[in-house]
Amino acid sequence: MKKNITLLIALVFFSYGYSQFNSDAPWMKNLNATKKSSELNEPLKFQEIVEAFNQYWKDKDHTKKGSGYKPFKRWENYWKHLVKNDGALPTPEEMLEVFNQKQELKSSRADVSNWQSLGPYIHTNTGSWSSGQGRVNVIAVDPNSPTTYYIGAPAGGIWKSTDSGATWSPLSDNLLQIGVSAIAIDPRDSNIIYIGTGDDDAGDTYSLGVLKSIDGGQTWDSTGLSFSDTRSSINEIYIDPIDNDKIFVSSNKGFYKSTDNGVSFTRTLNQDLDDVKLKPGNSNIIYAATRNQVYKSSNNGDSFILASSGLPSTGGRIVLAVTSDASDNLYVLSADTNFAFQGIYRSQDSADSFTRLDDGTEDLFGGSTQAWYDLAFEVSDGDRNDIYVGVLDVYKSTDEGASFSQWNSWSAPGTATYTHADIHMIRDINGIIFFGTDGGIYRSTNGTSTEDLTEGLAIGQFYRIAVSPQTSSNMVGGLQDNGGYAYSDNNWKNYYGADGMDTAIDPNNPNKYYGFIQNGGGLYFSNDAGATLGGSIGAPASESGNWITPLKMSKEGELYAGYVSLYRLESGSFNKISQPFSSSLDGIEIDPLNTDIIYTFVGGQLYKSEDRGVNFTNVETFTSSFITSVAVNSTNNDIIYLTTSNGVYKSMNGGVDFENISFNLPGDAKLVVKHQAFHPDNPIYLGTSLGVYRLDDTSNTWETFLINLPNVAVRDIEINENDGNITAATYGRGVWRSDIPVVSVASDLQLESVRVDNNSQIVCSSVSPKVIVKNNGTDAVTSFNIEFVVDNGSPVSQSWTGNLDSGGTTEVEFPETNITGLGEHNLSFEVLLSGDAFEVNNVGSLAISKNNSDTVGVNEFESNNDNLLTLGTLWERGVPSGTLLNNAASGQNVYGTNLAGNYTDSSISYLISNCYDLSIIESPMLKFNMAFDIELDWDFINVEYSLNGGESWVILGSASDSNWYNSNTLPNNVNCNNCPGAQWTGTDSTMKEYSYDLSNFTNEESFIFRFNFVSDQAVNKEGVIIDDLSIEGNLLSVDEFENAPVLSLFPNPSSDIFNIQWRNANNVSYTVTDLAGKLIASRKDVNSSENTAQINLSNFAKGMYFLNVNLNGVEETMKLIKN
């Protein structure tokens, strides 16, 4: 049976090189209905499928979770890059030629790469509403070894665990990447494994048939079942438990049977099958399901008869379940022609007749209409009463289908039964329930909780990646259906959900991450490298972006986004820069030498702007394929590199003319090109659907750059010249990194970063900028100058002298500079060194928000002088005119999240107060009037404060405080993923005054607070309006201020540490007692020179305590709340 392994690998490649979409999808059914029978096996044109999809969705809401829209858009985004000139995707023969070219190139050139996987193998959820790591199509357990698990991924191959899912190893990295949708292990010999290739659910990969391993998955061979057409898929494989020579395969081409261990197969049922099950204890009886009918074999699969009595006459998809607890029973889960829930049916006579089990009162799909994509069904093998249904979420019955309840929630990752959304498989194996989802593999051993087993599986399907120019230890990427993944300190954090897309990192702050969701529907950012979700910024109201909406950061820290027009992020919202293009932008590239020059591309058209994106000129059009990326040479911006789906091009005159430099490249899709800066040979690196290639000015021959890299599509690459490495984002095998050759020069200074005091985001008065300069050259540097400009003002020069060795860094601090005018200001810097080899890395900039200072008094928001800082797109000042929210507390104007309608979904927006010096105010009290209409629990508003210029924020107060929050709901409850446990939510449309005592902060000279409004992904209302914002209290006289022993306590409440601060006291002591008066902590003779002390209550129970502080003989008692 052994086949030529070269042929096998080539066949496996076809699975990645060519695909048609899932034939169960409704638009595919509509398209096939227009074809003659003689045309049904012919390859479809790519545009035919896209047009059928668009036609189907004309009158449907694609924004609804579970609609089925997203799986196709993922498919379309990838496969459009493989379209040939005639509109078709490559044939197997053409892909074989491409594979042979790659193998020849790989063997003929020196390859200096050394790729290593960076995962994600494990992650921490820090902000995602549906945390996961990668899609799992199929799960299997070795029948001879219950601790040996297998999973199949749509583009990450097959993986094996020998310790019940604690650790995993890939089994297909030596082959070209394939999808796996079915796995079977021989019950008599665990070394024999069969896999059904392809992605049966979404068409990420198409099936070449069944492969077999006889050494536990170390190597693979072809079998007698292989597919030469491009519409085939496999959904199940079974080995006859009585006779392991017999193999049964379910596919959309029919039912296949082998009686000789897979050497040959015979098709015994010519139907488009979605599922197959063997009757427990009697493998002569086999059930097979088409989209709306059930067939039965009573002779071990040799022939079938229709067995659908009692089932609906029409339907969209059927899946089956059996149980050893009632071996004559067959259960059917049916979706209707719109792929919504249709019913659960049971036969008690081995499929001779069926009756409906459920009462039809509950939608077990949770409103989803994407059952063509994911539909999972299982009856417990040990207890027929336990039935599981999965589409978006899992529903469970404990009375054999008479009633069901929702068992979990995809948007509640903290709950006991959590799984990621989109359930592809539910399987009871040895009494353990396994779940395969878009986020990974989960297991339940008790039916009441799940355990995530995805740790160790690097199967992430990355769209884009961004690496900090300061350090490659910081990066952020976007994953298919698993949101934004942030990397720092060798750890991955999932800091937002949905489909993570294009990403960016602030060049001056390696911890400031940005990431889009699909279609640019929201920009999510983190200020701490993904440790928390800092907020989100909504899309422009009138425009939408592509599935992958491009995001690009300039070296000066300006962030651009490509919708139908080009936008720039300014003061927390997108500002339209250009006129609209013909359609949504596919990409953006900013000249690293002159940021006035910006390139964009749409389809095959390349545009260029020389005025920072205001005006664009069409400089080139490629008619035969899409442009996939553009890169500008980092030392000569006349040199432009460009990739299309089928070629690599170079311009020597700024895009006026291009020459094809594809040279000896194989014919795989060209996805991304990047230029390596600071190298005299100008190397460029190319990511393709097969891996990475390298070319430089010394040769016209491309080299492979592939050592250790799995054969997988590379969707994005980033180069960090300072660290000397390249990072690849793959679509199926996560993130990989390799060293690259670098060349050192004698003289090269780099402006590494810019910051202001305490990394403040908000400036209340003057600033003292600090610039970090690094010596990348081999020679020591003894002097240089730095020029500093605020906005477009006159430059200020600062000189530095000393000795800066090679590789060393130094910090240069500028004198205090006054910034005037509320809002965002730009600080730009340039390092000047005679003979510097690479001046491109000598500049940097920093955007700061200048805030106003304020004192006691009321802000009624009636004039422009009353404006506050805002971050995000929601908050605006004006006259409220909503249905419920339409009255100001005084005057006419308020601040509101939307003055005339509902707020937007998926938003985080801030209204930021002025800066207050509370040290000069006696008994300060925060007051404001507010009315709100917010989705109960899911959306909320609260108040946060900062003592360090916005670098970090803490929730102000708790729900137990008088006249404050109305909810203490905690995060990750079933009805709230974002709630911090202290918030307003629900509806109270009457303007009411709220207040909070700020006496604990009377030692703070720069106190800022902000209103934090958060909305989730669905359901919105009118929002919030706020008026008459004030800090009340008495201003201290000069003598009172200078002599007052001011005491402050924060945070309060706290779960562990409480901080005490004071001023003007040199004899300090304190005690802490509980409600019964028992002393639990005390300290005498506190070091008064530090003016601070900490109290640690982490080992004590939650509740109220009393703090008594003695300052120079004056005692003050305060309440401590431990939560």
TrEMBL record:
What keywords would UniProt list here?
Answer: Signal
Q: Name one Pfam family in it.
A: Por_Secre_tail
SUPFAM superfamilies per the UniProt record, alphabetical? Oligoxyloglucan reducing end-specific cellobiohydrolase
Concerning InterPro entries, the annotation shows: Ig-like_fold, Secre_tail, WD40/YVTN_repeat-like_dom_sf, Xyloglucanase_GH74
Domain Secretion system C-terminal sorting, residue spans: 1049-1121
Top-level taxon of origin: Bacteria
Instruction: Give the GO biological process terms.
Output: xyloglucan metabolic process
Name of the protein in its database record? Por secretion system C-terminal sorting domain-containing protein
